[in-house]
Amino acid sequence: MTHSHETDAATAAPVDDAPAKRHLRVALLGNPNTGKTTLFNRLCGLRHKTANFPGTTQEARIGHLSAQSVELSLIDLPGVYSLDLKQSEAEICRAMIDGEISPKGVQQGQPDAVCLVINALHLGRGLELAASAIRRGAPVVLALNMSDLAERRGLKFDLDELEKRTGCRAVLCNARTGEGLEDLRSALALPARTDAQIPSTTEESQRWADEVSHAVLHASASETAATITDRLDRVLTHPVLGVAFFALVMTGLFWVIFRFATVPMDLIDAIFAHLGGFVESTLPDGLIQSLLSEGVVAGVGATVIFLPQIALLFFLISLLEDTGYLARAAFVTDRLLRPFGLPGHAFVPLLSAHACALPAMMAARGIPDRRERIATVLVAPFMTCSARLPVYVLMTTLLFGDRPALAALAFAGCYILGALAGLFSALLVRRTILPGRSAAMVLELPTFKIPSVRNALITSYDRSLTFLKKAGTVILAICIVLWWLGSFPASAPPDGAVAMYAQAEQIEQSSVTTESAPSPDDIRAEADRLTNTNATLNSYVGRLGRVVEPVFAPLGFDWKLSVAMLSSFAAREVFVSTMAVLVAGDEEVEEESLVEEITTARRTDGTTPIFTRPVSWSLLVYYVLALQCLPTLAVTAKEAGGWKWAILQLGWMNGLAYIAALITFQIASAALG
Amino acid sequence: MTMPIRNHADSNADCPVAEIAEATRLSDLETGQSGVVCCCRQVDEANAEMLCAMGLRPSARVSVARRGQPCIVEVTAAGGCTSRIGLARDVAEKLLVQTS
Fold this sequence. Notes:
The complex is a heterodimer of chains A (673) and B (100). Chain A is of the alpha/beta class.
């Protein structure tokens, strides 16, 4: 081993002589399924941040750790089978190791070391990757991970021989238990370039990797674990049993999410309601109070409320991925998704989209083929995300309040309608603007393992943070803009309300009370409602609502619904609160009383109900299909690579929603009268 | 099944024509049947590179764990450990193996 490279003078210097703490950048490279993420999590824990590579959608986690008075920045690169593949992940790894790019916030230049994570069961494959990293001039440290699995399979490694033949430090470790990581830290703190002769071509490297593997490995694998995997696979990848098991897993996943996410969601809801109330009671009436309580608190609350579902979804997905099951799910769903022009890889993104389309579209990066990736990004928002749920709950309760079984059926129908619309849209897109044969499946099915809860918690934490940062800021900004549009121009209370306030005051002042007369509080509440409705009607949103009313009239919507539709254009969860303001005059109405208020709400003529059954059906269908989420558009533009995709998505989804709602309303009107 | 793997990975270009003539398509093997990959010349370039990097390349010892569309093949690496790869039939049809 030599320390030859000039730029690495500091690196090569003996640790004891270092005057100050040295700082080294270490790239974490490895094949997929080598336990790279577990190793990163074990080494850095929560001491990490996420940053993009400039000009790409590829993210890298950058973690920090210290070893022997050296500060290490660990850059987690995407898992790749080879640096020479023509895929974006391999290109990024290549450029990073060559020192051409770095994640934002990390100093550019060739990394001081490459920690090459190898699945100890597949030494040869790891060595081939190591060979290409060494050829690129990087000091490489070999981390033979999953030592426990190797031991159970009867494998023994001659590490001295491995170090001699590769010229690299080699450490046998187990990221799950932390075994061997102290040695790995020490090795990473003293990286050195190899002087061993590494073959220069891919073919020679393959031969070299095989030879080294044979020289280093001292026992033949026993077949126990292989047999277990084989037995499980017989069921899990079976054309019928596999799909049935998959359906069972998905049902369980959703059950857990909807059963357990409601508790923290209710808690968050209550906290933000109190916070809004606190702001209203402490600050004097006026613009600032209104901006803070209705704009900022309501906006942040509207985002944070979905956090429990997102955190739970990614926790469970990470657990499933860790067991090795997700690859099997992609394998069995490939057959189901292929007829729609999508690969099995699209299954995870489409599944995640049932919590929120934003992380789902980000998860679509795992799809190797560009056209399939864009198609998945385009149709992911059709899946029923959690923001649609309040509207589904409201509408199904309105339609089948007294028949829970039918309400549940309608609810499930919404999910199916969304999924089918997404799949058929994908087929259409793949047949027209993104044509071409689907990339054939080549998918590694990793050995089954016990999942790591620690990994799942960290993944969940990371995804939640990304969601809060990306969606939170945008939704907050939108809420403030909507607050402004809904609050301006300010209008005085209408004459009727002024008279009612005066009446309430009169009753309070006169000591005479009659049992049949309404209480002053009731009168004030009614006056508030009139004032709020009047203010909304005269605001920019109200004016826009009346302008677009003729557009929505064929769907059965009156101006109030049109306003609610407009205000929820940017974020659909705003619909229920807007309806609450318009109908009940108060955003904080309890759900049961809100349903009552909405059921009895009348149009401006005072007699026709706003929510007739045909209107409720039409509205429900519209919300299943429409794209009402500005952050989604921003993420689509980023992930698909251009605003044209976002505009296409918006036009297609809302156009389809409009036509479907129109047909629904006309049929329901004819059938139900 | 533990079998020794051949040490020398032939490149596709070296595939002897006679060997190909005797070879079977991987998709035609029965579940449990094994063979040695002799040619993946017909697989399109991107997939061929990926398969090669995953260890499914000329002279690799493979066995079929599940037949059909898609199928599962096991590739035996040094030390006797196997890795499982799910393959579309399109790809499996273009991989030629020798079963003898």
